[in-house]
Amino acid sequence: METTVQPNPNPASQPNGIEVKINPGRISIYVIVFYLLVMFASSVLYIFIWEEFSVYNLGHYIGQHWGRGIFGLLLIIFALYILAGSLVTYFISGRSLKGIRWHCDWKSAGFYPSRAVPLKHYRLLLLLPGILLGVLPMLHGFCTGNATAYVFGIITLVCSTADFTMWYKLRPFDDEDLFQTGKNTYEGTVIRRNYAK
Hints:
Blueprint: E1 18-21, H1 24-50, H2 55-67, H3 70-92, E2 100-104, E3 109-113, E4 117-118, H4 119-144, H5 147-159, H6 161-169, E5 178-181, E6 187-191
Antiparallel strand pairs: 1-6, 2-3, 4-5, 5-6
């Protein structure tokens, strides 16, 4: 007698979900160390390429771009990052406001999908804000000599470390699997959909 596997119409009810989470406390320590390393390394690189390299120019650059006004820049990055993440969340949730929820804690703030979404869409949510607000302004600032755009992009990349870490943890799963966000930030359940593979 031949049997066939019937796909479950509601994969979210499957008990075989795999919980995936990262430790934001540990990530925060790495972010601080990464921030200090990137601050000095990127400043040396920028001074070496765009200005006359000297300790005075390096100190002046760090003081001007990484010291004075950094909190205003962080506030702008925070607002733009939430806006970009919100737009991506809106589109991956089927353009429905019922499919998104606001979440804020000490680790992060923003809108997240309230329903299970395909993992390929959730990966887009994790990567797109960091690429648009981090990689592109950093490259633009470095290639044109615009120090403000360069520092903006670098700080955004550093702030995206937790998103990139979560994306890295989700790499082994298939694009068609579903991801249901958890109650806490940077945790959720992967619901396997490709049982034939």
